[in-house]
């Protein structure tokens, strides 16, 4: 009886082994039979990648579909694409410590299952192996462009830099390489900071100030490492979730804020002197097609301090969303961030200390009001 049992067990194990090997060989043959992307069908450089989405969604889809077999080998599947946004019909992802949902359930499915596309550099995919998570894909290098930024992202996304609590870089978690093209893989978060600060999202002024405080901590970290971002508008910050404390006290924790999109960033050598750390021209040339607002020092091609540009860009959006607050110290800080003279603007560290000092001494209850109430208070003064 024992011998018969051992025979059946060995037979069962042998069948499982044979089936496993058959699956492996089948998958290998299937994978190797897939064609590689055809470089001639892809945009030549980052500039071309950036622009073509606005021309034709079909061209965008055709280019990214060239990568489908390559992405599949990396365990990634593109979302379904449509005009203006991509959609994911596969349900919610699993937790990955980056994507969180607010306790307020309104429109959660819309936020999670849709991804807005702003240019041809970006796409989104879901993992097909292991944890089911969503990842943002971005073309980091093409045609010789982007190599410096890729090196910067690699450094800040690896230990020890990636472990520092004050490093707010959204980390590069994987790279997919084809020819001269490197596709960066990043965690997905649901909200940009400019979206999070909208009055319709139910955040108090205290909620907003703490998110801005984190953003300033992240900017300070970059500047301390001699890195100027040069595109520090609020849509290049992402937030884990909405506090929404004006609607309901759903959680006592605060969402983490991350900095993204380093395409225009510049890193200066460690042995460079402060007065030597200058740039010229708009962050994304040529000037005639640059769409962002610029401060006075960028109206010519004279060299300028890019760290002071970062402060102005950040302050411009803050001023638009949260000025006036009726809080004199805060309103003055917002005005100082966008001072016409670059030298009159605070450094990121100075702004961080001013805002942190204010929040430390101010009772939280006095900041528990919404932007709508803020406007009403200001009008009544």
Automatic annotation (TrEMBL):
Gene3D superfamilies named in the record: Transferase(Phosphotransferase) domain 1 (1.10.510.10)
Segments forming domain Protein kinase: 110-381
InterPro entries: Kinase-like_dom_sf, Prot_kinase_dom
Keyword Disulfide bond: no
Single GO MF descriptor: ATP binding
Assigned keywords, A-Z: Kinase, Transferase
SMART domains from the UniProt entry: S_TKc
Keyword Metal-binding part of the UniProt annotation: no
Name this protein carries in UniProt: Kinase-like domain-containing protein
Lineage, uppermost ranks: Eukaryota, Fungi, Dikarya, Basidiomycota, Agaricomycotina
């Amino acid at each position: 009886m024992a011998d018969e049992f051992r025979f059946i067990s060995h037979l069962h194990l042998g069948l499982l082994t044979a089936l496993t090997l058959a699956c492996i060989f089948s998958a290998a043959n299937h994978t190797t039979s897939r064609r590689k992307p055809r470089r001639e069908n892809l945009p030549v450089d980052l500039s071309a990648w950036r622009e073509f989405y606005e021309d034709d969604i079909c061209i965008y889809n055709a280019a990214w579909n060239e990568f489908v077999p390559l992405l599949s080998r990396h365990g990634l599947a593109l979302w379904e694409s449509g005009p203006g946004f991509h959609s994911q019909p596969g349900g919610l992802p699993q937790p990955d410590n980056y994507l969180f949902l607010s306790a307020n359930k309104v429109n959660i499915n819309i936020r999670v299952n849709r991804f807005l596309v702003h240019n041809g550099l970006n796409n989104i995919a879901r993992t097909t192996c292991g944890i089911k998570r969503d990842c943002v894909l971005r073309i980091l290098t093409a045609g010789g462009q982007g190599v410096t930024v890729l090196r910067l992202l690699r450094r800040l996304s690896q230990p020890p830099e990636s472990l520092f609590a004050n490093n707010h870089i959204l980390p590069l978690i994987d790279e997919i390489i084809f020819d001269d093209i490197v596709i960066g893989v990043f965690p997905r978060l649901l909200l940009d900071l400019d979206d999070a600060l909208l009055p319709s999202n139910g955040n108090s002024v205290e909620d907003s100030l703490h998110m801005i405080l984190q953003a300033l901590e992240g900017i300070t970290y970059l500047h301390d490492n001699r890195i100027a971002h040069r595109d520090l508008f609020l849509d290049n910050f992402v937030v884990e979730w909405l506090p929404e404390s004006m609607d309901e006290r759903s959680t006592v924790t605060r969402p983490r804020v991350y900095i993204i999109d380093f395409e225009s960033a510049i890193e200066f050598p460690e042995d460079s002197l402060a007065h030597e750390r200058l740039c010229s021209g708009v962050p994304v040339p040529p000037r005639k097609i640059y769409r962002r607002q610029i401060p006075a020092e960028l109206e010519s091609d004279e060299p300028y301090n890019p760290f002071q540009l970062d402060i102005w860009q950040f302050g411009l959006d803050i001023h638009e969303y949260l000025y006036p607050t009726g809080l004199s110290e805060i309103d003055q800080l917002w005005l100082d961030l966008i001072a016409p003279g670059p030298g009159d603007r605070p450094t990121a560290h100075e702004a961080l200390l001013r805002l942190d000092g204010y929040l430390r001494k101010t009772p939280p209850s006095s900041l528990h009001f919404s932007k709508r109430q803020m406007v009403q208070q200001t009008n009544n003064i």
